[in-house]
Structures are given as structure tokens and as C-alpha cells.
Design a protein that fits this description.
Elements (H helix, E strand, L loop, with lengths): L1 E3 L13 H15 L3 H12 L4 H8 L3 H15 L17 E6 L18 H9 L7 H8 L3 H13 L3 E5 L2 E4 L2 E4 H34 L10 H20 L16 E7 L9 E8 L2 E8 L11 H13 L5 H9 L4 E2 L5 E2 L4 E2 L1 H14 L4 H15 L8 H14 L1 H10 L12 E6 L3
Parallel strand pairs: 5-6, 11-12
Antiparallel strand pairs: 1-7, 2-6, 3-4, 7-8, 8-12, 9-10
Length: 437
């Protein structure tokens, strides 16, 4: 499985006036002075967002007692509590994902983000991002007693999400994207690529025309939808073979897999250079799914166990693995039509066809890659300045992804100029590939 630049379900931080910030400061001070029996419930209810029932189960205390103590705590806060909401302690919400690879199935092997995405951990990660913070600093910022902070920091260190660059000070050990990255992209990307934009557009149209002449399993997709798949396959090919930016090796983590975390705190009003996707593989076949930030829905990659089932249906019309077949139908990777015919709505590229596609890419787009990369480097020169310096490995990894991500700028340009049509609503950009014989 390979993940990069995934940005769905964007979260944001609410904005507050100076007046309300003063209320939050007062609330934090008062809460920190509560006895533990009140303080725990306030933290769990307002900060971690737990229900009365969940707090009752967590503390092994009757729900009635929890309700009474919460009411007492509110009374102690007097008039300030009237303005207390679920964001009373002003928690920041991050969207966390990973770059890299690993064998995770979401059940007995959950994604690593599962262990660091509670509300308090997210706030520690956000507040430690730009510069190192001590436990005391974090307690003051969040209004949460130090021993809560210490507990979460121990876990974040164990999960390799933060580091201790100096004694007793902690810093987030991965990139967090915010609106400033999207603003930089909007102000610079199209302007920088403009000298080559028309040439790239023409190359992608020629690629699409040539590939459409080849007979392979296209899953009944329209030419306008296949254009987006061909475009990202072309840019992926060039990135893998011709990109001279350093190829970053992601170090092995605590669980034996090679991944790095990545966070976003974006409003959704500004878009970064991002053409993202995931890939799963088994034996000699892979399933890749992609998305463009504008105009394309996104589907998670299929479990590797589904891949062979889909290939069986494409090549023989059925599958002997009835269990995986049923699950693949349930999850929408295989469609059972009214006449009981099985249909896989995902294009399939055999090893032979893959070679033909490479020849087409070499003919039309590879000659532009030297010029393209020089413009990518111009973009990157300003992009790198927006990150904390200790994240050099993650920054270089992100810069290499820019090589592919700027395709979204070319696609936007082509759509805006009427060179291509937007994709069909609810049409996924995905492909099955036989990557070796």
C-alpha cells in the first residue's frame, strides 16, 4: 500500500475574537484549579468530546454521578460556563494520514494514526509543530493539567510522532499542511507553469488519442473519463523514471513498516499542488486509485484480497472465491447486473499493454520533462521555506510529490480553457495493472 498527499475530509480551526479568547483563558485557569473528580469529567466531556455514558464507562462511575459532577463543575464556572461549548478549550482538529507503506487492514492491524488522533494528542502535535514546547508550555496553552500532557507525550514518542530535540522540550516530527501552503500554490503554480502549459496540454491530448486506439479492458468508461487516468499514469511514469529530485527512503518505524505521518489543518478554501492516490498489490497485480482536488470523487484502494477476484471476473467472467467475490460486490469493486452478469468497473492494463503505454509516454511527454522539472524546481524554491527545518526528510519527500501534484494545475488549465470536459460525476479514477509477468 502506498499513500501520498491524501486530503479528504478537511478539518479547520475555528476563529475567535479577542473577547472570547479572554473567556477561554479564564476557563482554563478555573478548570486547572478544580479537584480531580471535576477536572477529569470536564476534560473528557468538553475536550475529548466523550458522552456521559462513555465517561461513565471510562471512569467506572454511574452515569447519574457523572451528570451531577458535570453540573456541579458548570456551577463552579458560573457565568463563563454559559458560553462554554464543545470547543470551550479551543481544541484544534487535525486530519492525519500516512505516506509510505505497510500491511494494515483497519481491523486487527489499524493504521498508525489510530493511536495518535485523540483530541489532546492532536493539540500537542499542532502546538509543538513550529517550535519545541515543554510540558508546562503545553499545559498552559491547552488548559489541561500537566500529567495528562505527560501521558500523551509518552505515547506520541512511542509512536514516533514527536521528538525531543532538547531536554524536556518536544517537537512534532512530521509536516502539517495549512492554508498558507494552498495560498502559495494559488499565487504561484499556474504562473510558474505557464511557459509550458500549452505544450503539456497538447501532449496529454495526444497521449489520450493514441491510447484510445489500443484495445484493452476499459471498463466501459468514456473517453473523457479515461483522459484523467491516462494523464496521471503519464506523469507517474515520468516521475518514477525521469524526476531527478532525490528519492527519499522512508525509515522503518516502531511497527516494522516504513511510513511517515502527515497532517492537515486546512479550511478547504485553498488547494495545494496535490494529485493523490493509494496503491495496493498482490503477487503480480496492483490496484491504484487517484483523485484530483477538483472534480473527482475518491475511492479507497481495495484490499489486496479483492484484486485477484477482480482479475478473475475480468478474464473469466466469474471467481471461485465466493467469499471475496461477495465482499467485493458489497464494496462496489464488482457489480452484479440484473442478468446476474458480473462486471468490474475498473480498467485493466496487462503487462503487454503497459509496455505500449510506456512507448506512447516516451513519444509525447518525456521530451518536455527537462523543461517541466526546471519549472518544478522554481516552484519548490519558495515552497520549502514554509516548513520547520528539522523536517528535511519529509520536506524532500513532499517536494518529489510536487512533480506529480502539479498535474492538477495542468488539468485545471485545460478544463478552464475548454480543452477537456470535467469527469462524469461519481466516476472514479482507478486502474488494475499487471505490473510483472
Amino acid at each position: 500500500m502506498y499513500v501520498y498527499q491524501i486530503s479528504d475530509d478537511l478539518f479547520y480551526e475555528d476563529t475567535y475574537s479577542q473577547e472570547t479568547e479572554e473567556i477561554y483563558d479564564s476557563l482554563r485557569t478555573k478548570i486547572s484549579m478544580f479537584s480531580e473528580k471535576y477536572r477529569n469529567i470536564i476534560i473528557f466531556y468538553y475536550y475529548d468530546g466523550l458522552s456521559i455514558k462513555e465517561i461513565s464507562e471510562k471512569l467506572n462511575i454511574p452515569e447519574g454521578t457523572i451528570t451531577w459532577r458535570l453540573s456541579e463543575a458548570r456551577n463552579k464556572l458560573k457565568k463563563e460556563c454559559l458560553k462554554m461549548t464543545e470547543t470551550a478549550l479551543r481544541p484544534v482538529k487535525l486530519k492525519l494520514h500516512i505516506n509510505g507503506n505497510g500491511n494494515y487492514n483497519g481491523k486487527d492491524r489499524p493504521f498508525p494514526t489510530t493511536y495518535i488522533e485523540d483530541a489532546l494528542s492532536q493539540n500537542i502535535l499542532f502546538n509543538c509543530y513550529e517550535e519545541p514546547k515543554s510540558v508546562e508550555d503545553l499545559a498552559k496553552i491547552s488548559g489541561v493539567p500537566a500529567y495528562y500532557i505527560e501521558d500523551r507525550i509518552d505515547n506520541l514518542i512511542k509512536r514516533e510522532a514527536i521528538i525531543e530535540p532538547v531536554k524536556n522540550k518536544y517537537q512534532t516530527n512530521f509536516i502539517i499542511f495549512s492554508d498558507k501552503h494552498g495560498i502559495y500554490h494559488e499565487e504561484n503554480a499556474e504562473k510558474i507553469l505557464m511557459p509550458i502549459m500549452d505544450k503539456l496540454s497538447e501532449a496529454l491530448k495526444n497521449i489520450s488519442e493514441d491510447i484510445n486506439k489500443i484495445d484493452f479492458y476499459k471498463a466501459e468508461k468514456s473517453e473523457k473519463d479515461l483522459f484523467y487516468l491516462y494523464a496521471i499514469l503519464a506523469f507517474s511514469y515520468c516521475k518514477n523514471k525521469y524526476c531527478t529530485l532525490p528519492e527519499i527512503k522512508i525509515p522503518e518505524k516502531y511497527d516494522g513498516n516504513c511510513f511517515s505521518y502527515c497532517g492537515t489543518i486546512e479550511t478547504g478554501n485553498h488547494f495545494r499542488a496535490s494529485t493523490g492516490g493509494q496503491r495496493s498489490s498482490i503477487e503480480k497485480y496492483s490496484h491504484s486509485t487517484y483523485y484530483f482536488l477538483k472534480g473527482h470523487p475518491y475511492r479507497q484502494m481495495m484490499y489486496d484480497t479483492y484484486i485477484n477476484t477482480c482479475i478473475d471476473v475480468i478474464t473469466t467472467g466469474t471467481s471461485n472465491d465466493k467469499y471475496e467475490l461477495a465482499n467485493a460486490i458489497k464494496d462496489g469493486y464488482i457489480i452484479k447486473r440484473d442478468n446476474d452478469e458480473l462486471f468490474v468497473p475498473i480498467p485493466f492494463i496487462t503487462y503487454k499493454i503497459k509496455t505500449e503505454l510506456k512507448n506512447i509516454f516516451e513519444k509525447h511527454i518525456v521530451p518536455l520533462m527537462d523543461e517541466y522539472q526546471s519549472l518544478v524546481m522554481k516552484y519548490i524554491s519558495g515552497y520549502k521555506k514554509m516548513f520547520p527545518k528539522h523536517l528535511s526528510n519529509d520536506i524532500n519527500f513532499s517536494c518529489r510529490e510536487i512533480y506529480l501534484g502539479l498535474l492538477s494545475v495542468v488539468i485545471d488549465y485545460m478544463q478552464n480553457n475548454g480543452a477537456i470536459e470535467p469527469p462524469t460525476p461519481n466516476s472514479y479514477c482507478e486502474v488494475l495493472i499487471e505490473y510483472r509477468k
